[in-house]
Structure formats: C-alpha cells, structure tokens
C-alpha cells in the first residue's frame, strides 16, 4: 500500500506540469479510492475508484465534508480532524478502520492521508488513498478464532493428539502425551518408528498392517486398539483413531488422530466411550451444543458449545435458572412455557423453538430442541441440542433484502417478470408489464393468448415458436428474443427483449419463467450507431492522421523522450534522446535495445540509470534535476521526469522518461528569489528607519524638557535663588516619567515588557475601573457595560490590562468629540479551528465599542504601526494601539478592530482563559509620604551602572539598612560565599559576564533561603515573570521611584 501511495504522490512540479497525466493516473487506479481535501476537510476531488468503493458519485461528494465517509463512532471521537492533524505533523498517516458506503453498509479500509503542498511548500489540502480490505480483515478474524479454539481444545483434552505427515513420516504430539503416558515432548523422536517401537511386541505387526491398509484404501478414518508402553514401564490399553487426509488424487498425505487411554475400562465401557467420541465429533462438526436436565434434582449439564453460546464460563455452575437468564427478556416467558409443556405428561414431550440470547454485544439467535423422558408419569430427564442459527436468520434477511433490491433494480431498469404454466396456460404478469402494454390487471383475462396478444402481429409467430421450443426443452430450455409490443390504449410501438427459461418444479409441472425489458431507447441507439458506422472509415483515417502527427511531434521535439519495458528494453526513443545518448556514451540507441546492455561499459552510470527506471517501473512519479555539459561545452541544467506507461486498457507496459533543458527557468527563478530578498531588505530598512525616527523625535522632545529643567535648577542654585526650584524638578520628573511610559510602550510593542500572568476576573477589573472611566470620558459620553455572568478567568497581567482598557477608552472618547455611547462587553469564546494568530481553544474577549467617527480601511491597516496616529501633533505618541497589540500577542491573545466611517469602532481583545480561580485585583493605594525605613537589615547591591548603584545605596543607607555593594557578579560572589549576615540580594539582571538571574542561582547554592530582588530596564527572557523568577524572588522594573524601591524591599523583608 505504501509503495502504491508513493507512486500517486506527485511532486509540485509534476502537478503543475502534467495535470492531464496526473488525472489519468488517478482515474486509472480503480481499485483505490483517491480523494483530495481542502484545508477544511471538504472534498475537492473524487476518482472513479472512490465512486466504486463508496457508491457516491463525484457530483454527490464534491464540496462535502470528509466526515460523510466516516462511521458515527469515529465522528464522535473527531477522528477525521485527528487524522488530518497527524498527517500535518508526520507528513503522512496510515490507518485501518471501518468506513461508510452510500447504502449505509460498512467496509474495512486500509489507507493513508498526506498533506498536499504547492510549489512554495504551503499546505493547500490533503490527499487520502483507500483500499477495501474487508474480506481479508474478516478472514483474519475468522482464522484467529479458529486457531484460538484449536489451541484451547488441545489444552483441554487429556488425550494424546498426534499429527503425522505421511510423506515425511514426521509426527507432532500435543502436551497431553506427558500427562497420559509420562513422556516429555523433548524426549519423543518425531518419527513414526518411535511410536511403533513403543507398541507392545504382540500388537506391533498388527497395528502396522492395520494402518497401512487404511492408508492404501479409500477409507477416511483409521481406528484400532493396542497396548502402549508408558514411560514408567507399564503398558496402557489404547484406542487410537485417526482421520486420513488425501490429496485431489485420493493419495493419503496426512493423518491426524488421538490416543485414548482405555486401561481402566472394559469392552462395554470401551464401546460407550467410542460412541460418545463419535457423537462429540459429530456435534462439534455440526457446532451443536448438547444439554441434559434432571427436573427432580435440578441438575443441568451443558457441554462446551452450550456454555459458549450462552456466555457461561467452563467452570461456572449451571442450573435451569442459568438457562432462563441467558434467554432474552422478551423471549423468556414464552420459552419457559414451552419447556414446561414438554415436561407435562399430558404435553407433547418433544419441543423445538427459536429464541434470542442476552450474551454479547450483538444479538444471537439459537434454536433449541429437546425430548422429555418420564417414569411413572413423572419427568426424570430432558435432553436435547442447541444450534446457533444467527447466520441462517441473517442470510434469510439478506435474501429478503436481495429480493427487494432485485425488485428495485428491475423497476429501475424497466424490467417486468412473467410466469407461464405450460400445462394450464396460466399467465402471471407483474405490474410493470401491465404498465408497458397498457393493460389493467382486471383486463388480463381478455387476452387468452397472454403475452402473444400484445406482441406486434409481424413478430407474433416468431415469438410463439421460440417460446414453444423452450417449453419442449430445446436450446437448453431457454428463450431470448427481441420483438415489438403494441400498447393497448395508445397503440404505440415499443421494442422489448423477452428472456426466459424452462423450469420443472417439485411436482413435475413445467413452467416458463422470464423477464420483459423495455429496450426501445437501446434499439433507437443501435439505429443511430448504425448511422455512425457509415462514417467509420472517415473517422479511422482522421485518427490515423492524428497519430501520425503525434509521432512527428514526438520525433522532432527538443525534449529527450524514451520509454522502456519492465526488462529495460527500449520501447521508443526520439531523435533528441538518441543524439544525446550517442554523444555521451558512443552508441546509438534503437527500439528493442536493452538500455542496461548499452551502458555495460559505464557501470556507475548503468547502476544509476537502473535505479531511476526501477523506481518508475514500481509506480513512482518523480523528477530530478542534474547539471550536464552540452555539446558546446556549456553547463546546462536538465529536468528528468519519470512516470508509468500504460496501454489503452490501463495495464502497465513500462515506464516513460522525458528530459527537458530547464537552465533558463532555474536562472529566472534564482533572479526572482534574489530580487525578492532585496525587496524584503529594503522594506525592513524602511521600517527600521521609520521606527528609529519616531523614537528619536519623541525622546529628543522629552530629553529637552529634562535637560532644560536641570539647567535652570543649576542656574538658580548657583545664584542662590531657590524659589521655583520645585517647579523645575517637577517638570524634569514629569518628562522622565513620560520617557519611562514611552519605553514601556516600545517594550509592549516589541513584546518584551515583563508580564505577571495570573488568573484575572475581567468583570471585577472592569467594575473596579468604572468610576475612573466615567470621570475620564466626561459628561457628554454615556458608558454602558454588558458583562457576561458566567465569564471564565483570563490569563493576563491585571496592571497592563488596566492600562490597555484605559487607552482604548481614551481613544474612543477622542473619536466622539460631540459625545456618544461607549460600550464595554465581556464574553467567552471557544475557537475550534485556528484563526489569524489564535490557536484553537477557550478565550475571554473584552470589547470596547464607540459610536464615533470611525476609520476607513486604509487607516485600520496601519493602526498597529509604531508612531502612527490620526490625532493632532502633541495629543498622541502613536504607540497606544501598538502597545496593546504587543501586550495581546505576548500573553497568547490577539486584537481585532472593526471600524466603519460614520458608524464607529469596535476593538476586541482576545485573552486565553485560565483554569484556576482568579486572584483578587489589588486596589491602587496612595504612596505613603514617609518612606518605609529599615531596621538594620543587611543588603548586598550588585549594579554595574554607577549612577543607579549610588542612588540605591544612598537611599538604603538613609533608610537604616546596612549596605554592601559590587559592580558585577564576580565581585559579589566572595560576599555570598562568606559568613557575613545577609538578608536581601538586590541585583540588576543585565550584568556583564554572569547575568543577575545566574547570580541569583549561584547565591541560592550558598544561601538557599536568601531573598532576591531583580531590577531591570529590559525584560529580555523575563517577559513572563512566573517563568523567569524562582521561589523567594521578586522583580522591579526600571525606572522606579525611591518610594517604590523602599516599599518593595520592606515588603520582601517582612513577607
């Protein structure tokens, strides 16, 4: 199957270059169902093999989902989608499963699925190839069942079972040989001589003659008794019985039998055992179960088959109630009543009935027969048999369905059935014949001549003679004749075929049974065909002329073409191939030459050519590109394509190779790739220039404010003019804070801000911000909230989400200068298929909608670009939506904008749901006026930036902490390794050499419980804090305020 699939898996180049050949190959593979799917599992191609296998035509299935072919059980388990996913991950996926046909039946299919890719390697769909393996699957199950039952029977018996090959005289024994006679299987020589040598000397010659006589005769069974030497030296009285297996010529080739130890039994017992064995073999062969019931004491004996049919284990006790429990509840009372009638002295004594069992998943039907025996009017015994008739009833049901299908087929084919009694002349017509000849059923008696009465007068004598001949047994009692019939009412003439055969029933009565089929359309088609045959010679001449044209094209084409048969003998070569072969290998190839013989002097090339042609002859369609030197000494690129070659019947006759110079095409592709790379570099540089220009513009403005304010403060201090210094300090601080906010927006846009992702109740967050939002929006804008009652927790950073929501509301406010409606909504959304940048799964969606001015499509396309803004200069940085987009992507979500000019804008923020209970959102508390002082704790500060390190140390000393410092991780290690008391490590993340996170791990080796505060101006690998920080670690992002630093340190030391 894998080789076949490989042969049907064309390269992208092949598909684009030879679609007609590909379709021809797919349609020729009628033993395989080949179908193509789009990425959404809708069927886009359906070959003739699929029509044949499933029963649906291509018109039925094109555009239908693949699930239509799967069983309800597999659809419930999402098997089609799983199979497509596995094909994407592994390249191809194989499976065996039950599939559905159009008529509702199932078949066992072996198949594979693989993704289809275009020339760019993009997945454009899938291809699925199937083959019906139902017969093999059922045969394997049946073989397995037979083998298991045979193995169980061999283990269950105490008789030594043997299997003797009469041609090789080899004997196999079962394990009972050890139990019955003491010989281990490893001690027994597997030859007939060993067995003869262990027979008592007085019996040996007789047994040899007895066995030879049975083998030489036509007898199916050999049986005899003798004394057999046990391993302990005693002799056992043995009854040996074997079944002789013969070939088609009656020659005995094998004998299988069993040695029964009869040492403790005498003649009568021996005869009884022999009788019981024969009965057991007979019932086993007939698959009959036997039972013996004693009503007086309730004793019930079931044989193995009875237990199997009723689902009772071999060691489980059985009673009459066990039997009733095995009967289907709907049948139980009826069966019990029948048994009780048999046990009634006044009853019939014998009974037979069918019933259903409750054992197993599928319904099983059994027939039970029994006879009661009485003594002095009292039932003493009830014995009988049980037979599984499930298949018989199913066969009867299938026969009924087949008759129904036949009736439907006859109706669909406009075929009627008739039956003539040759003695009485009684004629039976079915409804379709009445319709064809326009005679009502009540009017049939008006036509004493039956069918002949409606036959055209010119054909009547011919039809009468043919039917009479069939009744007399001539022509093997068959009749088939084409004639005309005349409609009774309209007088229209139609052509029919009468086909029948002579039948003699059980009473010896002769009947003629047959069908009448309306072939008027076929007759008219035959007439038309005869007209067409008048132009046959002209058409043949045109075809020959066309073939000659194709031969000329083949011979004169620049493409080098050759074909070989399965033995590598050339079937055809064109002039271009022959010239190139002669130039390279010095010999002129012709039809009939063996290609490998021509390359005998070039063993390396011979092996390579043989390998390629062998792949093609195995059914693989492929192409290779190689670089060769042409006749002018120039290196050229050639593409060689290989494919199967079939005759007009579809039979494989060889393989085909075409070789084309693709040098210019490959050069053009290389130039195109180079141009595309230059274009991408140009676009990248343009984007970088735009980004750096925007950053430079905003930062220069902010730095101007900071530097100007500091210069003014220095001038006032030098001039001892301290009035107004606070105002300049506030101006510098405000500019610095705006610069910090710009950095945060840039980090959010670049998805490099540090996120504290936790389960968050979005409804609680919106409710907590509602008052702030109302003050921000103003009185002319109405704020509405529609929050889902069953909202899932979202996996997000609450602080960043608050900033994003506030930013969206401010944008909405600015889009409604004359007032309007602003609506905030929350809802749960589950995506079943990938959409844009979102994976399938559950999401929480936060929506902000306004009734403002809206945006045209060309503006919507740019809103996420950095520094792009529609606001006047000074009213926006152009990083708001870029920050939100980066924040959403960083947490695994997405932002969708829908805007229409004059109608408003809606922004939908998708956030992954979180399975845990959401944490409480901390309320924003005002920064205390007094810094949180220390109580003499020891802190190690590691910071490579002198200015930052000096400020931190100055603040910590001022707050009462004992501080040690280091400019890099290497300088901090001696302090960490020493016995110096240390309560907290404060370290920058971006240290030279060993970074802060690595230093934290090193510190934990010496001080496992040391608390660590990491400070950073750029998150880097710490974009998600929970993934970056370890236990007992916190993070503070630069720039931070003195108050924030003091509070964080106090919180960690007291926590």
From TrEMBL:
Keywords: Kinase, Phosphoprotein, Transferase. Residues 93-145, 222-274, 479-531, 618-674 form the PAC domain. The modification 4-aspartylphosphate is found at residue 988. Its EC number is 2.7.13.3. It catalyses: ATP + protein L-histidine = ADP + protein N-phospho-L-histidine. CDD domains: HisKA, PAS. Residues 18-91, 146-218, 275-346, 402-474 form the PAS domain. InterPro entries: CheY-like_superfamily, HATPase_C_sf, HATPase_dom, His_kinase_dom, HisK_dim/P_dom, HisK_dim/P_sf, PAC, PAS. PROSITE patterns: HIS_KIN, PAC, PAS, RESPONSE_REGULATORY. GO terms for molecular function: phosphorelay sensor kinase activity. Residues 694-915 form the Histidine kinase domain. It is an enzyme of class 2 (transferase). Residues 938-1053 form the Response regulatory domain. It comes from the Bacteria. NCBIfam families: sensory_box. PANTHER family: PAC DOMAIN-CONTAINING PROTEIN, PHYTOCHROME-LIKE PROTEIN CPH1. This is histidine kinase.
């Amino acid at each position: 199957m894998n080789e076949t699939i490989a042969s049907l898996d064309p390269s992208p180049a092949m598909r684009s270059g030879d679609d007609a050949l590909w379709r021809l190959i797919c349609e020729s593979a009628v033993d395989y169902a080949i179908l193509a799917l789009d990425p959404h599992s809708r069927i886009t191609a359906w070959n003739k093999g699929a029509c044949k296998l499933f029963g649906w035509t291509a018109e039925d299935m094109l555009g239908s989902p693949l699930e239509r072919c799967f069983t309800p059980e597999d659809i419930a388990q999402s098997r089609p989608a799983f199979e497509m996913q596995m094909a994407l991950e592994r390249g191809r996926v194989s499976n065996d499963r039950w599939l559905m046909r159009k008529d509702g039946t199932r078949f066992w299919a072996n198949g594979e699925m693989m993704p289809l890719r275009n020339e760019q390697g993009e997945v454009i769909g899938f291809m699925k190839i199937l083959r019906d393996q139902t017969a093999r699957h059922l045969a394997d199950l049946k073989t397995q069942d037979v083998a298991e039952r045979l193995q169980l029977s061999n283990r269950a018996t105490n008789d030594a079972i043997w299997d003797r090959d009469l041609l090789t005289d080899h004997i196999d024994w079962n394990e009972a040989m050890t139990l019955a006679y003491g010989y281990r299987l490893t001690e027994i020589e597997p030859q007939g001589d060993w067995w003869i040598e262990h027979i008592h000397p007085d019996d040996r010659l007789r047994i040899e003659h007895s066995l030879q006589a049975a083998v030489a005769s036509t007898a199916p069974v050999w049986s005899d008794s003798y004394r057999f030497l046990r391993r302990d030296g005693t002799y056992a009285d043995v009854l040996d019985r074997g079944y002789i297996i013969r070939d088609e010529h009656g020659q005995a080739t094998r004998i299988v039998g069993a040695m029964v130890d009869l040492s403790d039994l005498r003649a009568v017992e021996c005869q009884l055992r022999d009788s019981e064995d024969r009965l057991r073999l007979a019932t086993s062969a007939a698959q009959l179960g036997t039972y013996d019931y004693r009503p007086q004491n309730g004793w019930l004996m079931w044989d193995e088959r009875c237990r199997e049919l009723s689902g009772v284990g071999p060691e489980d006790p059985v009673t009459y109630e066990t039997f009733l429990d095995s009967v289907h509840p709907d049948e139980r009372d009826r069966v019990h009543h029948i048994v009780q009638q048999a046990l009634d002295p006044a009853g019939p004594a014998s009974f037979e009935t069918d019933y259903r069992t409750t054992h197993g998943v599928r319904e099983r039907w059994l027939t039970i027969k029994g006879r009661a025996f009485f003594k002095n009017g009292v039932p003493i015994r009830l014995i009988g048999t049980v037979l599984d008739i499930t298949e018989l009833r199913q066969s009867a049901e299938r026969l009924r369905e087949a008759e129904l299908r036949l009736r439907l087929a006859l109706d669909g084919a406009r075929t009627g059935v008739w039956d003539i009694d040759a003695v009485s002349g009684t004629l039976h017509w079915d409804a379709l014949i009445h319709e064809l000849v326009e005679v009502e059923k009540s009017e049939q008696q008006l036509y004493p001549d039956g069918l002949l009465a409606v036959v055209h007068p010119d054909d009547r004598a011919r039809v009468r003679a043919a039917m009479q001949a069939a009744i007399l047994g001539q022509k093997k009692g068959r009749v088939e004749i084409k004639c005309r019939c005349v409609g009774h009412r309209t007088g229209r003439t139609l052509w029919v075929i009468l086909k029948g055969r002579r039948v003699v029933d059980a009473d010896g009565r002769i009947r003629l049974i047959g069908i009448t089929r309306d072939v008027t359309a076929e007759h008219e088609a035959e007439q038309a065909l005869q007209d067409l045959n008048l132009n046959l010679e002209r058409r043949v001449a045109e075809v020959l002329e066309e073939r000659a044209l194709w031969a000329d094209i083949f011979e004169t084409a620049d493409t080098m073409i050759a074909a070989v048969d399965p033995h590598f003998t050339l079937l055809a070569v064109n002039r271009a191939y022959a010239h190139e072969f002669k130039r390279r290998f010095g010999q002129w190839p012709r039809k009939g030459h063996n290609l490998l013989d021509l390359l005998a002097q070039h063993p390396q090339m011979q092996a390579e050519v043989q390998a390629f042609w062998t792949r093609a002859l195995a059914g693989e369609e492929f192409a290779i590109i190689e670089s060769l030197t042409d006749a002018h000494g120039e290196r050229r690129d050639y593409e060689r394509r290989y494919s199967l070659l079939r005759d007009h019947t579809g039979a494989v006759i060889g393989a085909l190779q075409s070789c084309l110079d693709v040098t210019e095409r490959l050069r053009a592709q290389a130039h195109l790739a180079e141009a595309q790379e230059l274009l991408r570099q140009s676009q990248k540089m343009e984007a970088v220039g735009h980004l750096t220009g925007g950053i430079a513009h905003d930062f220069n403005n902010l730095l101007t404010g900071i530097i100007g304010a500091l210069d003014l403060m220095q001038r006032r201090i030098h001039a001892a003019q301290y009035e107004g210094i606070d105002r300049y300090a506030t101006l510098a601080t405000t500019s610095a804070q705006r610069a910090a906010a710009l950095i945060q927006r840039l980090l959010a846009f670049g998805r490099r801000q540090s996120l504290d992702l936790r389960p968050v109740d979005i409804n609680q967050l919106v409710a907590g911000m509602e008052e702030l939002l109302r003050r921000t929006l103003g009185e002319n804008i109405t704020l509405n909230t529609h929050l889902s009652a069953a909202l899932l927790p979202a996996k997000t950073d609450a602080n960043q989400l608050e900033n994003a929501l506030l930013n969206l509301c401010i944008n909405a406010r600015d889009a409604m200068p004359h007032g309007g409606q602003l609506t905030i909504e929350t809802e749960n959304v589950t995506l079943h298929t990938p959409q844009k940048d979102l994976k399938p799964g559950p999401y929480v969606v936060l929506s902000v909608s306004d009734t403002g001015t809206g945006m045209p499509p060309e503006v919507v396309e740019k809103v996420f670009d950095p520094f792009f803004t529609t606001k006047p200069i000074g009213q926006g940085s152009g990083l708001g939506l870029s920050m939100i987009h980066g924040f959403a992507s960083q947490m695994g979500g997405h932002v969708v904008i829908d805007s229409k000019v004059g109608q408003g804008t809606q922004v939908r923020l998708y956030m992954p749901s979180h399975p845990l209970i959401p944490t409480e959102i901390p309320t924003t508390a005002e920064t205390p006026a007094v810094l949180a002082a220390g109580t003499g704790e020891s802190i190690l500060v590691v910071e490579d930036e002198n200015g930052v390190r000096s400020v931190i140390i100055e603040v910590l000393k001022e707050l009462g902490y004992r501080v040690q410092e280091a400019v890099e991780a290497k300088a901090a290690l001696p302090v960490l390794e020493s016995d110096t008391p240390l309560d907290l490590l404060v370290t920058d993340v971006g240290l030279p050499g060993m970074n802060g996170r690595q230093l934290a791990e090193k510190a934990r080796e010496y001080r496992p419980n040391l608390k660590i505060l990491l400070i950073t101006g750029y998150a880097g690998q710490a974009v998600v804090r929970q993934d970056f920080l370890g236990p007992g670690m916190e993070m503070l992002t630069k720039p931070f305020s003195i108050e924030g630093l003091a509070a964080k340190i106090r919180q960690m030391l007291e926590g």
